[in-house]
Structures are given as C-alpha cells and as structure tokens.
Write a structure and sequence with these properties.
Layout (H helix, E strand, L loop, with lengths): L6 E3 L2 E3 L3 E3 L8 H10 L3 E8 H16 L21 H15 L4 E6 L3 H13 L4 E5 L11 H18 L4 E5 L6 H10 L4 E4 L7 E3 L4 E3 L11 H14 L4 E5 L5 H9 L4 E4 L1 H6 L3 H15 L5 H4 L17 H8 L7
Parallel strand pairs: 3-4, 3-12, 4-5, 5-6, 6-7, 7-8, 8-11, 11-12
Antiparallel strand pairs: 1-2, 9-10
Length: 337
C-alpha cells in the first residue's frame, strides 16, 4: 500500500507534513539545503527581530556622532556614508539565497515591536520572495496598567495591519497564555490570519547565585511539551474549520508524535529540537515511522488521517477539556512512600 504524505498548509502544497521550524539550521543556507534533501515539507526561517535592528541603528548613530563636537574639522576627511547593510538587509539577502537553494516553500518569521515595524518589514519580506510569513507574537505581559483585553485587541490590530499590507499567506504564532485562547484564535483568524502555530515556547530566565545575574540559557523541548498544542489543536480544529491552517510545535520528536498532532487536526507538525539534536537526516526517520504506522493501520494519506481524533471526532469530547483534569489526577497509580 502506498502512503501519501502530501498536505496543504497556508494554501501551499507541501510534499510532507514535517516542517522545519525556526532554528540555526533553518537560517543557514547549507543546512537548509540538507533539510530540503531530507524531505521536509517547508522551512521556517528564524525570526527577524525589530529590536535587534533598532539597537544596531542606535549603536551605529552613536559611533558616527562620537567626537563630532570636539573635532568638527576632522569630518572633512571622511566621505558621507550612503548606506550600511544591517541586520534587516542581511536577513532579506539570506532569505533570497535560501530560496534559490531549496525546492520547498520558505516561510519567513517576523517579531516586531511596533505597528510600523511589523508593516515595514512584512512588505520587505514579501518583496524578497518569501512564500509565506509567520508573525511571532512573543511578548511578556508585564505592565499592570494594560488589561488582557487591551493586549489582545492590540495583537489583533497588528495582524489586521500586516494582512492589509501584504498578499502572501499569513500565519500567527500564538502564546498559550491568552486569557481565552479559543476566542482570541477566532479573532486572529477574523483579522486576516490564514493559519495559527500552536504554540510559542517562552524561554524562562534563571538566576546565577554566584554572580547574581539573570542567566538566559536555551533548553531544547521535551516530549511532555507536546500535550499543550495537542490539546488545543484538537479543540480548535472543529471550531475554526478546514479553511484555517493549524501547525503544532513543541515536543515533537518522532513519527508517533507527528501522527498524534495530525490526527487531532494539525495540517503540519513542526520540529526544531530533535533536528538540532540529531541533524537534518532525522526527518527521514520521522517520515519512515509515519509511513510504517499508517500502512499498519490502513491509512493511505495525511488527508484521511487529519482530524480523525479531534474534539469533534472522539467519543468523549470532554477528555480534551474539563474532564481531562480529574481523569489525569486519578490516573496516578504509584504508591506513597
């Protein structure tokens, strides 16, 4: 029996539901080409951060202005700078290069800090040839003067502003910390998103007791982190309908993990950590495991598999909601010491 792994995400036809999500590997031309050869359906570039661009501009201006008032006559010795290639320019150039090297869709990622930044760089990313754009809404809501409603309204406005500015497919990568995720997800889609990515991982800071400094250390995802996107993909799929693309990310390591998120309704399974651990060829392992399971259980395609275990399809929908709480607690079978 032949198993078909083709899928559609953001209106793009993909040869595989396995998508390489943002990492140092997807941002490097050679490793991106290896991911393409290994069989990924699409590649998502690391995010372009507006703060990094602004910080670079600020440092450049500070350096150029240094000593101006003290040695004004020395300025005549230096020609005026016409342009300087910055972080944004390098990102766009890298996007164009990767597009030329791979055969699969390339999705850019943008994390801005202002409405103007979102729109400006979204347009430039579109002009550089990205097949789609992922908006990375990564923000810690730490201002007590701003309510959840204010923050959510601001995010929806950002999505709508970017949607009005570009014509390429648009995905929004959500945090799991919104007050009412289902309602907010619906608003984001109404604002113009073609798809949602569930969820953004928030890297938590640690404290170094020797230096009393905040220590930022990245930790690759663990299998248990899959449960959150698994749950919400199952809940949102029947609510948002087939016209909205869903991507699940975090904790996906194996073909079994990928099958789970597809069965609850995801269009693609995004993998980062396990590819970093084992290299681009791990994609082949994941797809081999998927094909073996699908053949054994007589699934001929991802289309047939998708959504077969979503909230609307399972015998007990409450298992994904309130019932999940007490059932999980009662599942503990260990003995007290």
């Amino acid at each position: 029996m032949t198993v078909e792994l083709k899928t559609t995400y953001l209106g793009l036809e993909l040869k595989s539901p396995i998508v390489a999500s943002p990492s140092p590997l997807t941002g490097n031309v050679d490793s991106a080409a290896k991911l393409d050869q290994a069989g990924v359906g699409a590649i998502v570039l690391p995010s372009l951060f507006e703060e990094e661009i602004l910080a670079e501009d600020s440092e450049l201006n500070r350096s150029l202005d240094q000593g101006t008032n003290s040695f004004a006559e020395s300025l005549d010795y230096f020609p005026a700078l016409q342009s300087v290639e910055g972080v944004g320019d390098q990102y766009l150039a890298n996007l164009e290069t990767i597009k030329k090297r791979v055969s699969v869709p390339v999705i850019a990622s943008l994390n801005a800090a202002s409405t103007g930044g979102w729109i400006k760089y979204a347009k430039r990313i579109q002009d550089a040839g990205a097949d789609a754009l992922e908006l990375n809404l990564y923000r810690v809501a730490a201002d007590p003067a701003r309510s959840a409603a204010d923050l959510e309204a601001n995010d929806v406005e950002l999505v709508a502003a970017v949607r009005a500015a570009v014509g390429i497919p648009l995905a929004v990568k959500l945090s799991p910390y919104y007050t009412a995720i289902a309602g907010f997800a619906a608003q984001v889609v109404k604002g113009g998103a073609n798809g949602l990515v569930l969820f953004n991982r928030f890297y938590q800071p640690d404290l170094d007791l020797d230096t009393l400094e905040v220590a930022n250390r990245i930790e690759l995802s663990a299998p248990w982190e899959l449960r959150l996107p698994l749950r919400w993909t199952a809940i949102l799929r029947p609510q948002l309908g087939k016209g909205v693309s869903l991507a699940a990310t975090s904790g996906i390591r194996s073909g079994t993990d990928a099958l789970k998120v597809l069965m609850v309704g995801a269009d693609v399974a995004m993998i980062t950590s396990e590819i970093l651990r084992k290299g681009p060829d791990h994609v082949r392992t994941v797809e081999t495991e998927m094909r073996a399971w699908m053949t054994e259980h007589e699934y001929v395609s991802v289309e047939q598999l998708r959504g077969s275990a979503s909230r609307a399809a399972v015998a007990d929908p409450s298992a994904f909601e309130r019932g999940n709480y007490f059932q999980t607690i009662r599942s503990w079978s260990g003995s007290a010491e």
